[in-house]
UniProtKB/TrEMBL annotation:
One of its GO terms (molecular function) is glycosyltransferase activity. Belongs to the glycosyltransferase 47 family. This is Probable xyloglucan galactosyltransferase GT20. It is found in: Golgi apparatus membrane. GO terms for cellular component: Golgi membrane. It is a single-pass type II membrane protein. Pfam families: Exostosin_GT47. Residues 186-515 form the Exostosin GT47 domain. The gene is LOC108816875. The chain crosses the membrane at residues 21-54. Keywords: Glycosyltransferase, Golgi apparatus, Membrane, Signal-anchor, Transferase, Transmembrane, Transmembrane helix. Its main location: Golgi.
């Protein structure tokens, strides 16, 4: 056996004596070995890439909004520019269903996953929120955010990301129809107005005498909610109350050319419930929470019996609420109702003067101003006046100090303003000077810049009064405007406002008057021209009988975008 083996080995060695065969054998061996190694390396590489992307998604796309989970906490806004906002992360996830309604929240395993908590966002919002254009917009928005927000924790970063995402979604609903078709056409834009029992709207205005302890509200309900005329300001000026949005828009919808009287013809269903006045009438009275919530629950029971409501679970329904969102989200505080926290109210669109930043179906629209034009001429004549008006004051501030609020910057602003009395004029609202609209409007007409610090909440009616007066608003909190009015104010806030970080003011790191004095005449003229010619028409609510050919007012813009939103969602 040993001889036999040696012979095989000998024969084998003879075969390999040929150098060409040896070379080919080695070449094939190296080639196949390289193929195996490359395949293995490629598989490992792609596995690591997928793992990295998954990890990044989980870290960077935490879509559970911190402030929804923790709700209002100690302040209605959990994040502004780094001031006093404290996060108390909750493990209670039941608010997930409250945000998006029963249809999206129930029965889906996706909703339990960290990076899929919102389910199919294209289905919910009618827009792909992770598209390339979205990424570019987010990058641009982030550059602006870095100028006025300074998150102090990862939770705040996540919360800010959600705020900007929702604003971007709302901007995706801005209508482009007027660019390609006749905006006056009513095709596919029918609006149906529910004929509610009077207890849900008109009867609420009957209690106007004692609705607010210090004033008779009845005078504000005249002229379709505009209030009494202001003769010395000219045509179209009224003493309009800041909470008058509900009757104003109700009157406009009733007379809208696209109003339909058959539910089958409707694209939008308008619910004329005066929820803001329902809240206001109990605000200064000692009544139980059951009393405060009674009418809100009754209106939902009334709607629940309608097939038009059931068909799309309320997604094509619109409510106008003339107060801030927090007045309808009662938590540990005793004021307001819980109307917007009710399950049935998650799908409808809510139009408010101040929105909840983490609620995509809360749409902020402008506060009613004192100006309600009826014709194009009313608008153009006012525009010409505001452009040519001499401005005697560089800066003005109409407001009162808040000595009981340690976080308020108003006292500091008043101090800086009075110190530079040759540049800044202060109108003290604490002594009643602002009760007369003429005083405020004339001050703004005479001023280049109008300081707009937060008051009881971040937003201010005064912002819109200053804009229609051609006065450039100075914003101290991004939630005053930048995270609010996505349909009526542009994303580039530098075109119409000046931002000053309120923390810098509070810590005396900046003198606002000196900062504004550095603005050139050319800069002020460019900003004012943009405000007056481009923004002003879309910030006022025209007369209920208004006939505009050249302009779209705040109501028209709102209506156009509502149609766009509902077309994408239903």
């Amino acid at each position: 056996m040993g001889v036999s083996v040696s012979k095989r080995k000998l024969r084998s060695s003879k075969k390999t004596d040929d150098p060409r065969i040896f070379f080919l054998n080695n070449l094939c061996y190296v080639f196949f070995r390289s193929i195996v190694y490359l395949t293995l390396i490629t598989v490992i590489f792609f596995f690591l890439i997928c793992l990295w992307l998954s990890f990044t998604t989980l870290i960077s796309d935490n879509v559970l909004p911190i402030c929804v989970l923790s709700w209002k906490l100690n302040h209605p806004y959990c994040l502004t520019d780094g001031s006093k906002r404290v996060f108390q992360t909750s493990t209670n996830l039941t608010t997930r269903s409250e945000v998006f309604g029963k249809d999206e929240a129930s029965g889906s395993k996706e909703n339990e996953d960290g990076d899929k908590a919102f389910g199919d966002q294209t289905k919910i919002y009618g827009v792909n929120v992770i598209s390339d254009s979205d990424s570019k917009a987010k990058n641009k928005s982030k550059e602006d955010q870095d100028n006025y927000t300074k998150p102090k924790s990862e939770e705040e970063v996540y919360a800010l990301r959600e705020v900007t995402k929702y604003i971007h979604i709302q901007r995706s609903w801005i209508s482009t129809r007027r660019k390609v078709e006749n905006p006056r056409s009513c095709e596919g834009k029918g609006v149906y107005v529910y004929d509610l029992p009077s207890k849900f709207n008109r009867d609420l205005l009957v209690d106007c005498i004692d609705m607010v302890p210090w004033t008779n509200m009845c005078k504000f309900f005249k002229n379709d909610g505009f209030g009494e005329p202001i003769e010395n300001l000219g045509q179209g000026w009224f003493r309009t109350h800041q909470y008058a949005l509900e009757p104003i828009l109700h009157s406009r919808v009733l007379k809208h050319p696209c109003r339909v009287y058959k539910e089958s013809q409707a694209k939008i269903f308008y619910v004329p419930f005066y929820g803001g006045f329902d809240v206001l009438r109990w605000h200064f009275k000692n009544v139980s929470n059951d009393v405060k919530d009674r009418l809100a629950i009754e209106i939902l029971e009334w709607l629940g019996s309608k097939e038009s409501w059931k068909r799309n679970a309320g997604k094509d329904h619109v409510f106008v609420l003339g107060k801030i969102s927090w007045d309808f989200r009662r938590n540990k505080f005793q004021w307001g109702s819980r109307f917007l926290d009710l399950q049935e109210m998650q799908n409808p669109t809510k139009l408010l003067i101040e929105r909840h930043p983490w609620e995509v179906n809360d749409i902020a629209i402008p506060h009613p101003t004192y100006f309600h034009p009826k014709t194009d001429y009313d608008i153009t004549s006012w525009q010409n006046k505001m452009i040519s008006k001499p401005r005697r004051n560089l800066i003005s501030f109409a407001g009162g100090a808040r000595p009981g609020n340690p976080n308020s910057i108003r006292s500091t602003l008043i101090e800086q303003c009075t110190l530079f009395s040759d540049q800044c004029r202060f109108l003290n609202c604490s002594d009643g000077s602002c009760d007369q609209p003429e005083n405020v409007i004339k001050l703004f007409q005479d001023s280049e810049f109008c300081m707009q610090p937060p008051g009881d909440s971040p937003t201010r009616k005064s912002v819109f009064d200053s804009l229609i007066s051609g006065c450039i608003p100075v914003i101290f909190d991004p939630y005053t405007a930048y995270y609010q009015y996505s349909w009526h104010l542009p994303e580039d806030h530098k075109r119409y406002s000046v931002y000053v970080n309120q923390e810098d003011v509070k810590e005396k790191r900046v003198n606002v008057v000196e900062k504004l004095m550095a603005k050139t005449i050319r800069e002020r003229e460019v900003m004012r021209s943009y405000i007056v010619h481009h923004l002003l028409p879309g910030l006022v609510y025209g007369d209920s009988n208004a006939k505009f050919d050249r302009f779209r007012d705040a109501f028209d813009i709102t209506f156009d975008n509502l149609i766009e939103k509902i077309n994408k969602l239903v």
